[in-house]
TrEMBL record:
Protein name, per record: Finger 91-like isoform X2
Record bears the keyword Mitochondrion: no
SMART domains: ZnF_C2H2 (SM00355)
Domain C2H2-type: residue ranges: 60-80, 87-108, 116-136, 144-164, 172-192, 200-220, 228-248, 256-276, 284-304, 312-332, 340-360, 396-416, 435-455, 463-483, 491-511
Length: 513
């Protein structure tokens, strides 16, 4: 039999239950003919029978939800009425359930009697400790009946079920958008209000969500709390760990029908397809430049904002990317973590090992599609193609050099046409050598020659070890120190050596300060 109460009847009953002591006025015992259990109260007996039969006689006339137990039904009604009859006498906060008030009262005397035997963390409630222990044990007792995914907390299962049901009970009263979780609605509303209540104490940056602030702070601290239990690699965000773990699995269900490459994640697959389509859906709202990935756009924006959140704790130099900071720190420590497995030589970057190995194998993976000539590095191939016979129709009448376009030839010609004045005997401010491409002037013809290469892209100085080419001889000389390990610049105070003069200059600031 269905019991349906009006709101006024329910509210009267709730008031009666709250104001009067709960006295058992029903002395008669009731026995369940299914399981044999006995009950002293009629309501408890009826609720038990409903549980046995699966019947839910208590119907909410506000939302249509049904309940087996009268107490659950009454508690549910308070969601609609907003009533919170249980008040904390310390802070005045009110609650819909007495048990919630009891748990709340523990926060005032800082009472946390429940301790985790594994990590020592303390909790005010035994249920919270039970949930916490599952983190260590990996226990996930709550399983989804639809997809079998398991969870450590019941509330997480409830949130998850809304993926299958499509239920989104929390609506934004500004734009009408709906959400499956109340917390997501609260975060969403800050888009409309512009509120960013979470502040970084290190750099002052503000955020609309606490989780975003937590992730941001790890940029400063370098903390990577999420560890892969297969290879030990650590990550700053749990989502990155989840993606990484799939790299250990051989399963790659997402296949690109253009090039045949397969992927473990749908998101990676979607990003990859943009290589073929040329789609760049992420636009910089400052300059309009488009990007294939949202991460690339975020890094790009630092050009406009000047943000450099990664600081070297040795010399104070700041960088826009963590990878740049890691590479920079090796100038202080001298660390060379990448080694050649053939000769044992070590390098600061993995790319340098790749270039170096070609000196052992004579590998030349870069091919000229015109004549088939092979090269160890793309820079040498590009330089070779710029002087390739038959493919550079623009000739210099003075030296015979050829160029692939007229603009490059125009930039080259001033080398021969300008009057070669001895700079030592020229007036102090005289700059007789002009660049026809941009109008910039120079005191010496050699300076003009080097400058013109910024227009032509010419890099005539290749490294004979790795093949990388440079526009200036000085750039090549500095580069070779990577291979030789030479550090010709010495600090007069502490004796530390450096491969570049600029690194010595930065280092000396430590002593000055």
């Amino acid at each position: 039999m269905e019991e349906k109460l009006s709101k006024s009847q329910i509210c009267d009953e709730i008031q009666s239950n709250n104001s009067q002591p709960q006295v058992d006025i029903e002395k008669q015992s009731y026995t369940c003919d299914i399981c044999g259990k006995t009950f002293s109260g009629n309501h408890v007996f009826i609720s038990h029978k409903c549980k046995q039969s699966g019947e839910k006689p208590y119907l909410c006339d506000s939302c249509g939800k049904r309940f087996s137990y009268r107490c659950e039904f009454i508690s549910h009604i308070r969601m609609h009425t907003g009533e919170k009859p249980f008040c904390c006498d310390t802070c005045g906060r009110t609650f819909t359930h007495k048990s919630t008030l009891t748990n709340h009262k523990r926060i005032h005397p800082d009472e946390k009697p429940f301790h985790c035997d594994i990590c020592g963390k303390a909790f005010s409630e035994s249920e919270t400790l039970t949930r916490h222990v599952r983190v260590h044990a990996g226990e996930k007792p709550y399983q989804c009946d639809i997809c079998s995914k398991a969870f450590s907390h019941k509330c997480k299962l409830i949130y998850h079920m809304r993926i299958h049901t499509g239920e989104k009970p929390f609506r934004c009263d500004t734009c009408g958008k709906t959400f499956s979780q109340k917390g997501k609605l609260i975060n969403h509303k800050r888009i409309h209000t512009g509120e960013k209540p979470y502040h970084c104490d290190i750099c002052g940056k503000t955020f609309s969500e606490r989780g975003t602030l937590t992730g941001h702070i790890r940029i400063h601290t370098g903390e990577k709390p999420f560890h892969c239990d297969i290879c030990g690699k650590s990550f700053t965000h749990n989502v990155h760990l989840t993606h990484h773990k799939n790299s250990h699995s051989t399963e790659k269900p997402y296949l690109c029908d253009t090039c045949g490459k397969s992927f473990s994640h749908r998101s990676t697959f979607s990003s990859h397809k943009r290589i073929h389509t040329g789609e760049k859906p992420y636009h910089c709202d400052i300059c309009g430049r488009a990007f294939t990935h949202t991460g690339a756009r975020s890094l790009h924006k630092r050009i406009h904002t000047g943000e450099k959140p990664f600081h070297c704790d040795i010399c104070g130099t700041a960088f826009s990317r963590n990878a740049m900071l890691i590479q920079h720190k090796r100038t202080h420590t001298g660390e060379k973590p990448y080694s050649c497995d053939i000769c044992g030589k070590t390098f600061t970057r993995s790319a340098h090992v790749t270039y170096h190995k070609q000196s052992h194998t004579d590998e030349k993976p870069h091919h000229c599609e015109i004549c088939g000539e092979t090269f160890p590095e793309t820079g040498i191939l590009s330089h070779y193609k710029s002087v390739h016979p038959g493919e550079n129709p623009f000739h210099c009448d003075t030296c015979g050099k050829t160029f692939s376009d007229k603009y490059s030839l125009t930039c080259h010609k001033p080398i021969h046409t300008n009057i070669k004045v001895d700079a030592k005997h020229s007036p102090k401010d005289e700059k007789p050598y002009h660049c026809d491409a941009c109008g910039q002037t120079f005191k010496q013809s050699s300076a003009l020659t080097s400058h013109v290469r910024t227009h032509t892209g010419e890099k005539p100085y290749p490294c004979d070890i790795c093949g990388k080419s440079f526009a200036r001889k000085g750039g090549l000389s500095a580069h070779k120190r990577i291979h030789t390990g030479e550090k010709p610049y010495h600090c007069d105070i502490c004796g530390k050596t450096f491969s570049h003069k600029s690194n010595l200059t930065v280092h000396q600031l430590i002593h000055i300060n």
